[in-house]
Amino acid sequence: MTVALTASGLRKTFNRRMIFDGVTFEARSGNTVLISGKNGSGKSTLVKLLTRVLTPSAGAIALSAEGCVIPEIHWPLHVGLVSPYMQVYDEFSARENLDLALTLRGLPPDAARVAELLDDVGLIDRSDDPLRTFSSGMKQRIKLAFALIHNPAVLFLDEPMTNLDAAGIALVRRVMQRQREQGILVVATNDQTDVDAFETKVDLDARP
Fold first, then answer.
1. Residue 53: phi, psi to the nearest 5?
2. Treating both helix axes as pointing N-terminal to C-terminal, what angle do 111-120 and 94-104 enclose, rounded to 10 degrees?
3. Full DSSP string of 55-95
């Protein structure tokens, strides 16, 4: 399935303060988008707009599949998000969190997919432990699995290396490479390590 994500003239203001204005880009399956900018430039705010967590002050966002616009109500079936502000449930086990991720998207239980992802993120041996016993890096791995449970066409990663050790960073890089091959990848970060690997770059420092 070929998908396209389009942003046209996006503006966001808070309490009359302009965060950014005029953000415009288009990405299709196989494309990668880098959102960069200093702290406070609005990287996370832009990600929230693009994932429909927030509403833009002006401009438009569209997601389409095979040329047909996807209604906003169906976006959760096509979009995955990993971010520092994303909440997981400490009182639930790792397995229960991923079961919930399926339920929230209206998808049926899938024990095999849950086990596959827990193994992929290196937490299969902690499947039934509550997240309150996990380190911050382990919770970041669960957030990654939560975002990937439905094989999203568009994956958003907001500062994805946060709290991760070398093995966790390697895991994120593998996920990024897979997403590049099968859908759209959008990364918001100040890490310039992979900057040349992104076809589209949105530099919020260069905007009002």
1. -75, -35
2. 120
3. --SEEEEEEEETTEEPPGGGGGGTEEEE-TT----TTSBHH
d(CA 196, CA 208): 24
Sheet holding 184-188: strands in order across?
A: 79-82, 154-158, 184-188, 32-36, 200-203
Structure tokens at 206: 């260069």
In whole angstroms, give the CA distance from residue 28 to residue 10: 18
CA distances to 25, 90, 118, 122, 208 from 175, rounded to whole Å, are 23, 24, 14, 13, 33
Structure-token pair, residue 70? 């996807």
Report field, pTM of the whole predicted structure over 0.85: yes
Q: Which amino acid is at 64?
A: S
Q: Look up residue 109 and give its amino acid.
A: P
Token reading at 125: 């041996």
Interacting residues of 17 by C-beta distance below 8 A, sequence separation 6+: none
Residue 124 has pLDDT above 70, yes or no: yes
Give the tokens for residue 101: 């991720």
* Domains of the chain as residue ranges with CATH: 3-206 (3.40.50.300)
CA dist., res. 62 & res. 111, Å (int): 33
pLDDT tier at 163, thresholds 50, 70, 90: confident
